[in-house]
Design brief:
Elements lengths: L7 H5 L10 H20 L1 H13 L2 E2 L3 E4 L4 E5 L10 E4 L3 E10 L4 E7 L24 E4 L3 H7 L1 E5 L2 E5 L3 H15 L2 E4 L2 E4 L10 H28 L24
Antiparallel strand pairs: 1-7, 2-3, 3-6, 4-5, 4-7, 5-6, 8-9, 10-11
Helix pairs in contact: 2-3, 2-5, 5-6
Length: 257
């Protein structure tokens, strides 16, 4: 479970979070959530299979690829039209799903969907969509796609209705913010613990901290329920999943005085 599933960019889609957050601090908190709450949600067997797929479930491609746009790759001199619905692992850590692969007689134009890698907007405030990194170093593929969809999100049908499932990262992100709200200023050193406060800032009150934490935990519970709904509906695909009931959001509806 060494792979961290969220980035600073992912969390900045939820709330403001400084780009300068210490990478060791960020990684340790994300790993804590993945090891504890995330594992408890999915179950030990499913979480092992999930991370085993991310780490070992792909075959490295030796073909030549050119990044065509933020959502498309060109495979030069090869027919990869059979890659539709395949999972791709880019640069050993970015996971996307192939939605189209069109062979033109010489090259294959591959269109992908995945986790948006940017939090930037255009001049009209519209979020820019970028599924591919600026540089492609390695591309690996797999015919398995259930875990890529579980990670990144997908649409599915429930009771004849189409539902958008947002993936796993929002659950981890809201949990991260709840923890960071409570102890983000507490640092540990060789001589003990200390708290950093800037001269131009005031510390939030206990009421403000509790109100924020309550909101973050309620949002994480919403995402948890979305994950449960998706896995329950797709239980035939996820045979290691033990079906669960939804959690009560009001458990974190704190009254702050």
């Amino acid at each position: 479970m060494n792979q961290i599933l969220v980035t600073n960019t992912d969390l900045r889609k939820l709330r403001q979070l400084g780009k300068q957050v210490n990478i060791d601090n960020f990684t340790a908190r994300a790993r804590e959530i993945q090891t504890n709450e995330f594992t408890e949600l999915l179950g030990a067997a499913l979480i092992f299979d999930f991370f085993n797929f991310l780490e070992n479930g792909f075959t490295l491609s030796n073909d030549t690829f050119v990044r065509t746009s933020d959502t498309q790759i060109t495979a030069t001199g090869v027919d990869l039209s059979s890659w539709v619905d395949n999972s791709l692992k880019l640069n050993n850590g970015i996971y996307v799903l192939v939605t189209a692969a069109v062979f033109s007689g010489g090259n294959t134009l591959i269109t992908v969907i995945g986790n948006n890698l940017t939090n930037e907007t255009d001049e009209n405030g519209v979020l820019l969509i970028k599924y591919l990194p600026d540089t492609l170093t390695t591309i690996a593929f797999s015919t398995e796609n259930k875990y890529t969809k579980l990670l990144n999100g997908t649409s599915y049908t429930k009771d004849s209705d189409t539902i958008q499932y947002n993936g796993l990262r929002f659950f981890i992100g809201w949990k991260f913010l709840a923890i960071f709200t409570m102890d983000g200023t507490i640092k540990h050193s060789d001589v003990g613990n200390f708290s950093i406060t800037g001269q131009s800032f005031r510390s939030p009150s206990a009421g403000e901290i509790n109100a924020s934490k309550s909101t973050y935990l309620q949002n994480s519970t919403r995402e948890e329920n979305h994950i449960i709904d998706y896995l329950n509906e797709k239980s035939t695909d996820f045979i290691l999943w033990d079906s669960k009931n939804n959690e009560n959001i009001q458990n974190y509806n704190m009254i702050v005085i």
